[in-house]
Amino acid sequence: MQNIQNYINGEYSNPIQELWIDNYNPANGEVYSQIPNSQSDDVEAAYTAAKSAFKEWSNTTLEKRSRIMLKISELIEANLDKLAEAESKDNGKPIWLAKAVDIPRASSNFRFFANAITQFASESHESVGQNAINYTLRQPIGIVGCISPWNLPLYLFTWKIAPAIAAGNCVVAKPSEVTPMTAYLLGDICTQAGLPKGVLNIVHGLGGSTGQAIVAHPDIKAISFTGGTVTGAHIAKVAAPMFKKLSLELGGKNPNIIFADCDYDDMLTTTVRSSFANQGQICLCGSRIFVEETIYEKFKADFVERVKNLKVGHPSAADTKVGALVSKPHLEKVMSYIDIAKEEGGNVLCGGNKITVEGYENGYYLEPTVIEVPTDECRVNQEEIFGPVVTIMPFKTEEEVLQMANKVKYGLSSTLWTNNLKRTMRMSNQLHAGIVWVNTWLMRDLRTPFGGVKDSGVGREGGFEALRFFTEPKNVCIKY
Ligand code: TXE
């Protein structure tokens, strides 16, 4: 049994009150490690370490910050196999996916922000006729909190930490209690890279105890959070009276809109991926598929055939396309939606059942599931399921599909398949979403703003948006 420890002031330590939580391997349902359930005293220790590091770190040259971050990036790459194995064991995702996407992306996050900070410029405004010049200082906030979820563990953890420290802040960070392992390993990598003690502090534990203590800490002045919408709303409530800066990246129920004039094969292949990548546990997955009536029956047949052929299996098997869901409660939540769909008159075209993988009978495996829904207003079409379950239904006109696409409380991403330029422009303008992909999905350029509208959150991450979030602008006006 491997015990995970907090990483505070550059050192690993047990939680002060010695409270521990079991950590499960979703591929076989077994407890394989224990993690701290840190309390407010642990968070206070992390805060104190961050505070004592802040003066020096915020005055460290950009070149030096950048050099250390590039070293972290290199070390993540050098530990690719070890980190990918840990991620896969913790999360249930296929190991090839962790190796090809999650861990390389964590490395890119540090590399990207190591470079971005050296290009981050602020504005100046000459007050013509008044003999004055204004310039804007972009100062680090101080101590910031980063709280991340379980679906893309190291990828999303570093997506917050990298811009935070690049901008000169010191961080108290909490990964999800469901997938703590790669965040734990990151501590050692930061030490090896020469990150000064206290710049990054990692406390493990439950949302209601550790996470709550970070959000409620009066001197942690900004919170960057990715997770569920209900949790995001709670965090906003706790943080509001303290006027904290908040970046909330929450859930999604993203439309995947397919017009008959699209490049069909490309669309079909990508739609399988956008539906079931990472077991459908990505906030950007296209979980509501709308297909133009004239190609609906053909699409339905082709899509279901492809989905039936997706191999569900142990995350370490090379041919596994769909691994295990992250946890037992999550599997149960996702399966409950399949029952709800049936009650609502949905037609399960394929999947819908728990799978037993030989040798791993207690793992959390579910067949990729496609549900044809009678109306866009049913619960499975409105609520975030966050698993390998998608809905499909036909549409007749652009106006009709636009209305259905927008008629949900979420607004994270949208995917549009068409070769009609005017329609692309019209629809991109009108879709309620922070991101619109046209003839592609999850193509990311780290310079672009990332985030959602409506219940998908507030604020944007990515590029200079993230550096703006993690700095306070100060206007200096000099009369001469
Ligand atoms: O997320 P939580 P859960 C969605 C998805 C999923 C649902 C719930 O629909 O089924 O959310 O998942 C920490 N104060 N997404 O319950 O609880 C928690 O410890 C401070 C979408 O697992 O939001 C973890 O570190 N922190 C999503 C993080 O918040 C708190 C990814 C996220 O956990 C806290 C994951 C509190 N009171 C789930 N309570 C996405 N946007 O990609 C919990 N946390």
Short recap of the structure:
The protein is an alpha/beta fold. Helices cover 41% and strands 24% of the residues. The protein is globular and about 70 Å long.
Describe the structure in your own words.
The protein is α/β, with parallel strands linked by helices and 480 residues long. It has two domains: 2-250 and 456-479, Aldehyde Dehydrogenase, Chain A, domain 1 (3-Layer(aba) Sandwich), CATH 3.40.605.10; 255-452, Aldehyde Dehydrogenase, Chain A, domain 2 (3-Layer(aba) Sandwich). The chain is 41% helix and 24% strand. The chain is built from 15 helices and 25 strands. It has helices at 40-58, 62-78, 80-91, 95-119, 153-166, 181-193, 207-216, 229-239, 264-276, 293-308, 328-343, 379-382, 398-406, 421-430, 463-469; strands at residues 2-3, 6-8, 11-13, 20-25, 30-36, 124-127, 132-140, 143-147, 170-174, 200-202, 222-226, 245-249, 255-258, 288-292, 347-350, 354-357, 360-366, 369-372, 389-395, 410-411, 413-417, 435-438, 453-454, 457-458, 471-479. A seven-stranded mixed β-sheet has the order 15-18-19-14-13-21-22, sandwiched between helices. The chain has a six-stranded mixed β-sheet with strand order 10-9-8-11-12-24, sandwiched between helices. β2 and β3 (11-13) form a beta hairpin. α2 runs antiparallel to α4 and α3 (80-91) crosses α4. The longest helix is centred in the N-terminal third of the chain and has 25 residues, at 95-119. The termini are far apart. The model has no long low-confidence stretch (mean pLDDT 98). Bound molecules: ligand TXE. Ligand TXE is lined by residues 147-151, 174, 176-177, 206-208, 211-212, 215, 226-228, 231, 234-235, 249-251, 283, 384, 386.
